[in-house]
């Protein structure tokens, strides 16, 4: 009987061998794909097992963490959540992450490959894994001025502010906003808050980052771009040269007369005068004269038609490429299809204030390891040169006239040179809806350099139509933002 | 005595005395107690940052179980195999630690089905060792069991039918393999039936093996048995199919059938029985699977665990995410595991400490730990097979190989099921898993194997002096 016994022994050995092979297959060959399977709850458990790194503004964290019950140990908290939401985005145990929280998730959770060596060391020394920090370029005072201004105004709106010489984003506010803390957990209250934020349940759409993701017709603020195109293309050589502008002016190939807002002295006005009182006829004609290609070319140099990554993605601003001359004329005064994000208009302003050089906008200055070592530093980068320094200075003097004695007087700051442009963009079928109030501006220091360029837009359905003008609603907010930046420079 | 090979020098030189190896056993038992005690401390430190307060009593309890076992073996089975008791103690002890670890899980505590399992398992282990001791004390010679061949058959059938008796049987999550004894709790009679059936098969085959082996017809190169000899295998086949159908217990059915085929093969030395057995089990399995939705669903879950997880999450009735959760636990453990107490295998939920306990080993002790556990099982089986080889009587050989083979099959079916190698069946890892019936029955199984090995290794009594014979000359090879 021993021969079959030996065979049974071999058979039992094979059974065990099969199990061993299967185990190696599971725990060695397939281990990583099982471990990182999106449905494997351990992925989320590990993600929230350690406190997340912080997002830092002016050396202070604007985020924090709290412990929660259940599977996930830590959840994100935000200080002044609604104010900073357009900067941070949110990270939620239940609803994932967006914007900066999503883009730099690896650093914040500590899972980034660049932290691998440290993590391995920590594992050996028994230290818990920690997240790194994201240091932003934002200016807390400017952000507060922007958000408080929008909030006081009460309607929807957004502010973007940039440091022209570097492209650092100083303020990025959107209103109405939401508190990302309220959806950071995975409990019932988070679910309720989340439901209330969804667009279909909330017509205010508070999670929309209007400063980056919403495009508005820029209205008259676009005229500074048209003026830049006129100067760059040699149509006019100075701000004080009379333009060849009839009044009334009929748009080419049509019988439609382009109107000004009121009885303005626009006939053969100089560029300076035309910008001061915001002549539609003068800039409409410049656009029509230059043609679609040249206007589009200039708009592209300022960053239109492309998404910007700051590193959060912004929507692409629009300037069409297949228009009739009359449509080019309307587009050149910021109507028709032309649409821009607040960030885009701040970029236009900052390029002019920076003597014609557009710096690539960014809001992450530095990524830090948990021990505060720098892992990655963002260097200012030139994005394009839309206009020459001479022409930029001509444009600056024109914009400064607007604030000094034009439509933008409410942005004046004592002892500081300010240049700006108002805009009141009509929209809706037959311009039936309330227009958007725009204001773009920059402040200039005594040495000629500019520390801040800002764009403000307000959409107010409740306000009296007549009250809405960029100079009235948006300029005071821009002024406060500039003031805040100037104060923090002292 | 013409042969001089070492295996045949039974009567003349036995008096020289084989070493009993009891001290080896004692030394190994020290390890078998110390390793689980360290593991227990490890879990406490990982979960509560402190050495668990029950460490001393746990260590003493396990030590007592091992000590009593050892002393009884030393007294009543001095020549028994020295490895089996330490191996069983180690598996039992480490199983207790992991059951205790899962008791600490907040997720499992939140379930309304939660009961603290470790104290009960410790009690069951003590009962198991008591049964082990009883076997060694009262079963002086395993050949006594031969007398109860047909009583065993009747007993096994009764045990198997019990869960189907209305009022007594319990249907738990689709398998009807428990009976409820008021005041005592539930028992899984199948675990005990395994041993009783092995006794019946061994007794029956010892008598019938010549008839089964020699009276056969040759057909297509295979020796086919005669119709009337086919009877018993058909009965067992039908019985296991019935278990499968009425108790929806795929594992036990496979186990019994496999055990019978192994013993039949050993008894008759006919390969044709294996071919025949495999064909019949395949036919039976396919036949049942074609109309049993419970079995079909198990197969579906095995083929596509990810989809099963999805269906379960969508709340489709009758689906469970356990298989996928077990695979994730194994994968997340990787090569070295997370360390005891630091994994999330409790995500498996229900039955994490019984049917799925191997997944916790997989996650917390990693590939290394699971391979070590599997090798411990392999060693038990190897000692069992060695006992069968060494046994001097056919009944002992058959019983030993039957029990070891069944043990190996059970390990394969459970571990293979949890690791997704074969469809999942509701059986428990011997010694590791939470379950009174399982741990008690397996201690009895080890007791019987030790008894057989003691008989096999015991030096035969010196033959009565024969005044006519001269001293046999021993010629060494």
* Contiguous runs where pLDDT drops below 50 for at least 5 residues of chain B: 1-16
Beta content of chain B: under 5%
CATH architecture of the domain at 210-363 and 382-489 in chain A: 3-Layer(aba) Sandwich
Secondary structure class of chain A reads alpha+beta
Proportion of strand residues of chain A: 15-25%
Q: What proportion of the residues of chain A is helical, as a percent range?
A: 25-40%
Question: Roughly how many Å apart are the termini of chain A?
Answer: 100 Å
Arrangement of strands in the largest sheet of chain B: 1-2-3
Mean pLDDT of chain B: 85
| Number of beta strands of chain B | 5
Radius of gyration of chain A: 28 Å
How many β strands of chain A by DSSP? 18
Oligomer: heterodimer
Subcellular location (chain B): Membrane
Protein name (chain B): Cell division protein FtsW
Organism (chain B): Streptomyces fumanus
Main location (chain B): membrane
Q: What does this protein structure show overall?
A:
The complex is a heterodimer of chains A (490) and B (477). Chain A has 490 residues and is α+β, with helices and mostly antiparallel strands. Chain A has a domain at 210-363 and 382-489: 3-Layer(aba) Sandwich (Beta-lactamase), CATH 3.40.710. Helix content of chain A is 39%, strand content 18%. Chain A has helices at residues 2-29, 31-35, 41-47, 81-88, 99-103, 105-109, 116-125, 140-153, 188-197, 210-213, 223-232, 271-277, 280-301, 325-332, 342-353, 389-405, 470-489, and strands at 55-57, 60-61, 63-67, 74-78, 91-92, 96-97, 133-136, 156-163, 168-175, 249-250, 257-258, 358-359, 364-368, 374-377, 382-384, 417-427, 433-444, 452-459. In chain A, α11 packs antiparallel against α16 (389-405), α12 packs across α16 and α13 (280-301) packs across α14. Chain A is elongated, with a radius of gyration of 28 Å. The mean pLDDT of chain A is 88. Chain B is mostly helical and 477 residues long. In chain B, the strands form 2 sheets. Chain B has a 3-stranded antiparallel sheet, with no helix packed on it. The longest helix of chain B has 34 residues, at 357-390. Chain B starts with 21 loop residues before the first helix and ends in a 20-residue tail after the last helix. The A-B interface holds A 1-9, 11-13, 15-16, 18-20, 22-24, 26-28, 30-35, 37, 39-42, 45, 71 and B 107, 262, 265-267, 269, 306, 309, 324, 327-328, 330-335, 344, 347, 362, 366-367, 370-371, 374-375, 377-378, 381-382, 385, 388-389, 394, 397-398, 401, 404-405, 408-409, 411-412, 415-416, 419-421. Chain B: It is a multi-pass membrane protein.
């Amino acid at each position: 009987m021993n021969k079959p016994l030996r065979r049974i022994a071999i058979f039992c050995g094979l059974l065990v061998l099969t199990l061993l092979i299967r185990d190696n297959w599971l725990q060695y060959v397939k281990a990583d794909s099982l471990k990182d399977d999106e449905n494997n709850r351990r992925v989320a458990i590990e993600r929230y097992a350690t406190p997340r790194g912080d997002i830092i503004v002016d050396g202070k964290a604007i985020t924090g963490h709290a412990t929660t019950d259940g599977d996930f140990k830590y959840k994100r908290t935000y200080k002044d959540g609604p104010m900073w939401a357009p900067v941070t985005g949110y990270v939620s145990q239940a609803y994932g992450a967006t914007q900066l929280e999503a883009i730099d998730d690896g650093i914040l959770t500590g899972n980034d490959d660049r932290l691998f060596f440290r993590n391995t060391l920590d594992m050996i020394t028994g230290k818990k894994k920690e997240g790194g920090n994201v240091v932003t370029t934002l200016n807390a005072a400017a952000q507060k001025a922007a958000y408080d201004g929008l909030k006081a105004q009460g309607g929807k709106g957004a502010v973007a502010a940039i440091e022209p010489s570097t492209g650092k984003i100083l303020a990025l506010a959107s209103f109405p906003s939401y508190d990302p803390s309220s959806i950071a957990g995975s409990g019932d209250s988070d679910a309720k808050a989340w439901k209330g934020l969804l667009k279909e349940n909330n017509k205010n759409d508070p999670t929309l980052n209007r400063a980056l993701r919403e495009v508005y017709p820029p209205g008259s603020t676009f005229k500074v771009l048209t003026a830049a195109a006129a100067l760059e293309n040699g149509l006019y050589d100075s701000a004080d040269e009379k333009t060849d502008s009839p009044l009334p002016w009929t748009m080419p190939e049509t019988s439609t007369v382009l109107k000004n807002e009121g009885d303005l002295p626009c006939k053969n006005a100089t560029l300076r005068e035309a910008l001061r009182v915001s002549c539609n006829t003068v800039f409409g004609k410049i656009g029509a004269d230059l043609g679609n290609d040249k206007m589009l070319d200039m708009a592209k140099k300022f960053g239109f038609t492309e998404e910007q990554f700051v590193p959060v993605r912004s929507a692409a601003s629009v300037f069409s490429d297949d228009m009739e001359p009359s449509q080019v004329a309307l587009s050149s005064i910021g109507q028709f299809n032309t649409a821009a994000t607040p960030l885009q208009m701040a970029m236009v302003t900052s390029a002019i204030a920076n003597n014609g050089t557009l710096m690539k906008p960014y809001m992450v200055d530095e990524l830090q390891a948990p021990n505060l070592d720098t892992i990655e530093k963002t260097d200012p980068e030139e994005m394009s040169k839309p206009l020459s320094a001479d022409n930029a200075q001509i444009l600056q003097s024109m914009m400064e006239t607007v604030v000094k004695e034009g439509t933008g007087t409410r942005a004046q700051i004592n002892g500081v040179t300010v240049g700006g442009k108002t805009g009141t963009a009509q929209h809706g079928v037959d311009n039936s809806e309330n227009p958007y109030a725009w204001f773009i501006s920059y402040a200039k220091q005594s040495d000629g350099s500019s520390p801040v360029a800002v764009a403000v837009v307000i959409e107010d359905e409740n306000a009296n139509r007549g009250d809405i003008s960029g100079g009235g609603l948006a300029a005071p907010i821009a002024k406060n933002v500039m003031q805040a930046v100037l104060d923090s420079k002292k | 005595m013409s042969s001089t090979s070492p295996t045949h020098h039974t009567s003349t030189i036995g008096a020289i005395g084989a070493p009993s190896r009891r001290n080896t056993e004692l030394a190994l038992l020290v390890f078998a107690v110390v390793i689980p005690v360290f593991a227990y401390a490890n879990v406490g430190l990982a979960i509560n940052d402190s050495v668990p307060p029950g460490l001393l009593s746990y260590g003493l309890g396990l030590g007592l179980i091992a000590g009593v076992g050892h002393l009884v073996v030393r007294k009543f089975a001095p020549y028994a195999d020295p490895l089996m008791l330490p191996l069983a103690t180690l598996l039992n002890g480490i199983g207790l630690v992991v059951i205790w670890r899962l008791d600490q899980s907040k997720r499992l505590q939140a379930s309304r089905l939660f009961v603290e399992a470790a104290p009960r398992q410790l009690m069951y282990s003590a009962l198991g060792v008591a049964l082990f001791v009883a076997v060694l004390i009262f079963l002086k010679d395993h050949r006594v069991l031969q007398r109860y061949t047909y009583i065993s058959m009747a007993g096994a059938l009764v045990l198997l039918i019990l869960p189907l008796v209305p009022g007594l049987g319990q249907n738990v999550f689709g398998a009807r393999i428990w009976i409820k004894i008021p005041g005592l709790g539930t028992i899984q009679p199948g675990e005990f039936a395994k041993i009783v059936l092995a006794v019946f098969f061994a007794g029956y085959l010892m008598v019938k093996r010549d008839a089964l082996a020699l009276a056969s017809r040759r057909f297509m190169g295979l020796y086919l048995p005669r119709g009337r000899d086919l009877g018993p295998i058909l009965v067992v086949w039908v019985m296991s199919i019935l278990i499968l159908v009425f108790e929806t217990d795929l594992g036990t059915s496979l186990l019994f059938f496999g055990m019978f085929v192994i013993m039949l093969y050993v008894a008759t030395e006919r390969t044709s029985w294996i071919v025949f057995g495999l064909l019949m089990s395949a036919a039976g399995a396919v036949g049942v699977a074609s109309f049993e939705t419970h079995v079909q669903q198990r197969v579906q879950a095995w083929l596509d665990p990810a989809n099963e997880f999805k269906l379960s999450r969508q709340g489709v009735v009758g689906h469970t995410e356990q298989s996928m959760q077990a695979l994730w636990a194994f994968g997340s453990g990787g090569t070295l595991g997370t360390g005891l107490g630091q994994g999330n295998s409790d995500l498996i939920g229900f039955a994490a400490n019984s049917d799925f306990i191997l997944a916790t080993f997989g996650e917390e002790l990693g590939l290394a730990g699971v391979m070590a556990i599997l090798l411990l099982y392999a060693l038990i089986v190897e000692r069992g097979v060695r006992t069968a080889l060494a046994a001097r009587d056919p009944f002992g050989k058959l019983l030993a190989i039957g029990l070891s083979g069944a043990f190996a099959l059970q390990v394969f079916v459970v571990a293979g099921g949890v690791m997704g190698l074969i469809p999942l069946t509701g059986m428990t890892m011997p010694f590791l898993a939470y379950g009174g019936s399982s741990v008690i029955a397996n201690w009895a199984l080890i007791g019987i194997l030790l008894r057989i090995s003691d008989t096999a290794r015991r030096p035969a009594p010196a033959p009565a002096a024969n005044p006519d014979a001269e001293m046999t000359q021993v010629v060494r090879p």
